[in-house]
Specification:
It is an enzyme of class 2 (transferase). By secondary structure, the chain is of the alpha/beta class. Helices cover 58% and strands 15% of the residues. It has a single domain, classed as P-loop containing nucleotide triphosphate hydrolases (Rossmann fold, 3-Layer(aba) Sandwich), CATH 3.40.50. The protein has 8 helices and 5 strands, in the order E-H-E-H-H-H-E-H-E-H-H-E-H. The chain is globular. The chain starts with a strand and ends with a helix. The chain binds P1-(adenosine-5'-P5-(uridine-5')pentaphosphate and magnesium ion. The site of P1-(adenosine-5'-P5-(uridine-5')pentaphosphate (UP5) has 31 residues, from helix 1, helix 2, helix 3, helix 6 and helix 8.
Length: 196
């Protein structure tokens, strides 16, 4: 079975990870967060990319796609090797820019189907507030005001155009993500129930 992919996009702190966790509880999807995979790789002993990833994340810059796509592809293959029924993936926080999109197209176009993009739309102010709140205990090196300014800039300059591109193809399912977790999830449910 060819992997079926839903890209999950939205600003920093829009609630991508939170909503993906709820989807996994209720639907037959595997959640792969590109950011989580990069943080894991950064912490892996002997990783040749650790230092680079660390710098990029603090600066809110987007890591070269060769690294990210390698991690995503390996995670997808591993999941499907363990259980053939697990061919539905939420790819959270990717593709974030043109380089990501080109890398995906080159490596994965024939290997996976992108069903649609789940877009958590949230104001910059709410995004920043949520990340700063989380930063009090998350230990994330990018949950501080300085990194957040950069993350928001990168999101606006690089990621929004990718969402707009998918929008033109009719592939974006937008959710107002500034509401409560449960209100947001109610919309997510109706989208997933419709899309199958
Ligand atoms: N929260 C969530 N939903 C809420 C709600 N409805 N109401 C109130 N509070 C809500 O949520 C963030 C916080 O808000 C949490 O405290 C949560 O409880 C609360 P979360 O679900 O974690 O939001 P999410 O959108 O996942 O935020 P995250 O910080 O993970 O988003 P980013 O996109 O910034 O981070 P990511 O981990 O994807 O990427 C980090 C960095 O990695 C990037 O900046 C980049 O440098 C690098 N990266 C790449 O280079 N390439 C990639 O492909 C991916 C990442
Ligand atoms: Mg996240």
């Amino acid at each position: 079975m060819k992997p079926q992919v839903v890209f999950v996009l939205g600003g920093p702190g829009a609630g991508k990870g939170t909503q993906c966790a709820k989807i996994v509880e209720n639907y037959n999807y595997t959640h792969l967060s590109a950011g989580d995979l990069l943080r894991e790789e950064r912490g892996r002993k002997g990783s040749e990319f650790g230092q680079l990833i660390d710098t990029y994340i603090k600066e809110g810059k987007i890591v070269p796609v060769e690294i990210t796509i390698g991690l995503l592809r390996r995670a997808m293959e591993k999941t499907m090797q363990m259980d053939m029924e697990k061919y539905r993936f939420l790819i959270d926080g990717f593709p974030r820019n043109q380089d990501n999109l080109e890398g995906w197209t080159t490596v994965m176009k024939d290997k996976a189907d992108v069903k649609f993009v789940l877009f958590f739309d949230c104001s910059n102010e709410v995004c920043i507030y949520r990340c700063l709140e989380r930063g009090k205990s998350s230990g994330r090196t990018d949950d501080n005001r300085e990194s957040l300014e950069k993350r928001i800039q990168t999101y606006l300059q690089s990621t929004r155009p990718i969402i707009e591109r998918y929008e033109k193809e009719g592939k974006v399912r937008r959710v107002d993500a500034s509401r409560s977790v449960d209100q947001v999830f109610a919309d997510v449910r109706s989208i997933l129930d419709k899309e199958g």
